[in-house]
Every structure is written in C-alpha cells, then in structure tokens.
Design goal:
The protein is 48% helix and 13% strand. It has 19 helices and 16 strands. The protein has helices at 11-22, 34-43, 60-67, 85-94, 109-136, 147-160, 176-185, 204-212, 229-232, 248-260, 286-291, 297-303, 320-334, 344-352, 358-372, 385-394, 404-418, 423-430, 434-443, and strands at 3-7, 27-31, 48-52, 54-55, 58-59, 75-80, 98-101, 166-169, 194-198, 237-241, 262-263, 272-273, 277-282, 307-309, 341-342, 377-378. Helix 3 packs parallel to helix 4 (85-94), helix 17 (404-418) packs across helix 18 and helix 18 (423-430) packs across helix 19 (434-443). The relative contact order is 0.07.
Length: 447
C-alpha cells in the first residue's frame, strides 16, 4: 500500500485531504509543521509528500530543495493558497513533482497522486534493470579458478577504478567483450553509456561514419545529421573490438581524439569534444602489425598503456568443466528441459579438445548437446563427430590415414554419433554383431 505524508498547518484541510486520499486505498500520515514532517521522514518511509508552501516554520519550496537530495525516491507535491508563477518554477527546479492550488484542485489530487506513483514504479523498475545489468556484467560472472583467469581478472579490477585506456589481447572467443563490460560496470562511470563496435564488420567509409558521425549532405544518402558512437560514449566507455582491422586513415583520426579530446564529424568543419574511456581489443599481435606498418606505431603505444592478456581455453583446462556446467544449466532452463549432468567421459573429451574457438565454441557445443540429449546425462556420443575425431588424434594415439584400425575406429565413432549412442542400432548399421561392437569399443577405448 502506498504511503502519503501530508504537511499542512490547516487541520481542516489536512483532514479533508486525508479522507479523500484514504478512500482511494492510500495510507495517510499527517503533520502540522515542517519539523514534525521531517521527524516522520526520519522514522519511516513515504512514497509521496503533499506539502503546503507557507508553513509556520518554513517554506515548502525550500523544503523540496532540502529533502530531495536526502530522499530522491520520494515525490513531493506542493500546495499553495495563492498560485505564484515564480514559486511554481522554482519548486519544479528544486525537484517537486507538481505545484497546485488548494481547494480549487481537490478533484485533481487523486489523478496527480496516481501519476506520481507511476513515476515511482517506473524509477524502481529502471533501478532493478540497472542492478541486473550490473550483476550480469560484473567480475563475479567471469567463471574460472585457474591462475591464468584469476590473474587477468585481478588486473582488470585494478584498472577498472581508473580512467586509463585498456588494451585486451586474446584469441577469438576468449571473452574480451565480457571483460570490457565488467571493467565499465566497476568504473566510476558505470551509469553512463557503454558503446561497442566491431571494427572488422564495416567498410572504411561506413566505419568512419559510425564512429565519428556525419552532417546532413556529407555524402550521398546522408539525409540528416547523425551522432557517431564516439559522441554516444561521451562520459562513458567506448569498446572497439578487433581494432587491428581498423584502416590506417581512421587510426590517425582515433589517435587525434585520444590526444586532444576533439574530433570532426564527416562533412563538418568545427571540432567536437568527447570525453570517454577507450577499451580496445584484438586477436592480432599489434607490435608485429606495427613493425610491418599495418598498424600505426603511435596509436599502438597510446593504446598499450595497460595491457591485459586473456588466456585461451586450452590454457585453463581446469575451468572447462565449470564453464560447461554453467552453460548446461543455462540452456536447460532456456529450452525447459530438466538440468542435465555430464558423465565423466563427456567431461574428459571436453578437456582433451583444443578449443580453437575458445569459450564461444564451448558454449555452442553445449547448446547443441543439450538440444540433442533425450536422457538426463550428457554423454560423449552427443559430441560432434569432427570433435570426437580431433579428440582422438590429440589424446596421444597414432592416427594414420592409411591404418585400417584408425579407419575402423573413426567409422564406429561416426555411426555412434549418428545413432546418438545406441549400440544395437550402431551394430546393425555397421552390419556386425553387438558382441563384436562391444569388443571393438573396448579395443579402441571408446566410451
């Protein structure tokens, strides 16, 4: 139930307003002075305050200015016997929700209270969403216990509280954008925009327009002014993924804004200022790219103030089961299946695989196995045949293209994958007895 505090020295008016408001289901508390009202505010919470402008111990307009910073979620509606435009303007500037005349506007009170409640509910919802986003992209959500990932997280946490630009290095799929989001959410500008752009996605001209914006008529099709992402990121964070793919001409423009804080939109002549933190990421060796003159050395040195190397998944084997289990729970819930367990052989295959696509590839593989599984446990037979083949060849066994045994083993794995682990069906398709199949499985150490 929504709680209303009425502060007015006219007892009859307080009683009238209380009766009207209580009939609409609100809980109402009364106070005759500002001092009494403040004491009530300190003891309990209220959603809305209805306050007279002229009170024995103060002015309602000044009261708004004093109370709003302390209780920002409380909406204040001022009541006055004589409307005064100057007071009304100042009240709104101080943070009042509205300013109305007593008596004549009694029929407007309830609709006004309902609008104030709608605003409070909307603000509450926005705060919940911001908290959810903050939690989703926090460092706590970067899973893993290996020393490699812990070291990377520790470095990111230290730099997050500064405004230093960051360079994230690592193979594709290692979670560079996740780290960038976590750094932003742990920074002093977490309430500001986080703007992300993949530099390998666009041609030079489109990338320039996306980054720096343009004026109407700057090029064919530029029918109106457009903000660039650099302008959108003002006060917040700009994340440029695959920065090693940025054309040299644009690298020069990016360097200028990093050095001066100014840039010029396409088709414009006046410089524009933007203050943002840059987090850049790449899977390339920028030092080598710089030596080969494919990346500006001055920009590289500007970006390389604080470098964080994200480990490949094969370098953090002990984290694979943790990550896989997280994705299993996520996708089980997503498709309304009961939570799966992973058998030992399944986990072993995951840990033996080299994961060229890193965490992104693991996530895709887990989604596939969850969709395919008809039981309660994820087994090796659910893994893609190509992955099983790669695992077999990377587990220390000799796999020859000319070996009959190797070819036989691969054929058995292929059919097992096709039948989703059904041994009887596999034996039938291979045209061998079930007993023979089991002997072959043991011989080739297939589980």
């Amino acid at each position: 139930m929504k709680k209303i505090l009425i502060i007015d020295d006219e007892e009859k008016l307080r009683n009238l307003l209380t009766r009207i408001i209580k009939l609409e289901g609100f809980t109402v508390t009364e106070a005759g002075t500002l001092k009494a009202g403040i004491r009530l505010l300190e003891k309990e919470s209220f959603d809305i305050i209805l306050c007279d402008v002229k009170l024995p111990d103060g002015n309602g307009v000044d009261f708004v200015k004093e109370i709003k910073p302390k209780y920002p979620s409380v909406e204040i509606i001022l009541l006055t016997a004589y409307g005064n435009i100057a007071d009304g303007v100042q009240a709104m500037k101080n943070g009042a929700f509205d300013y109305i005349t007593k008596g004549d506007d009694n029929d407007k009170i309830i609709p006004l209270l309902n609008r104030a409640i709608e605003k409070i509910q909307l603000q509450s919802r926005v705060q919940q969403l911001e908290q959810q986003v903050g939690k989703q992209y926090s460092f706590e959500n970067i899973l893993g216990k290996s020393a490699a990932i812990k070291d990377a997280v520790a470095m990111a946490q230290k730099v997050a509280i500064t405004d230093t630009n960051v360079l994230l290095l690592g193979e594709t799929g290692t979670g560079k954008e996740v780290f960038a989001q976590a750094i932003h959410q742990s920074s002093n500008t977490k309430g500001k925009n986080f703007v992300a752009l993949n530099c390998s996605t666009f041609s030079k001209d489109i990338l320039e327009s996306e980054l720096f914006g343009h004026k109407q008529g700057a090029f064919t099709g530029a029918v109106k002014d457009q903000k660039g992402l650099i302008e959108e990121a003002n006060g917040g964070t700009l994340f440029l993924d695959e920065i090693g793919e940025m054309p040299l001409e644009l690298q020069a423009k990016l360097l200028r804004i990093l050095e001066t804080g100014e840039y010029i939109k396409l088709g414009d002549t006046k410089p524009v200022r933007s203050d943002f933190r840059l987090i850049a990421a790449t899977n390339k060796d920028l030092q080598n790219e710089s030596d080969e003159q494919r990346f500006r050395a001055d920009l590289f040195y500007r970006l390389n103030v604080f470098q964080i190397k994200l480990p490949a998944l094969r370098e953090r084997v002990k984290d694979i089961e943790i990550l896989a289990n997280h994705f299993v729970q996520e996708y089980s819930a997503k498709i309304n299946k009961p939570a799966f367990s992973m058998d030992t052989g399944f986990v072993q295959k995951l840990e033996q695989y080299k994961w060229p696509g890193n965490i992104r590839e693991l996530k895709n593989i887990i989604e596939r196995t969850v969709i395919l599984s008809d039981g309660e446990t994820l087994t090796t037979s659910l893994l893609p045949f190509d992955m099983q083949q790669s695992v077999s060849s990377s587990s220390g066994e000799t796999m020859s293209a000319f070996s009959m045994a190797s070819m036989e083993k691969l054929q058995i794995l292929k059919v097992l994958n096709y039948t989703k682990g059904n041994k009887a069906e596999t034996a039938r398709l291979l045209e061998i007895g079930v007993t023979t199949l089991y002997r072959k499985l043991e011989e080739y150490n297939i589980h």
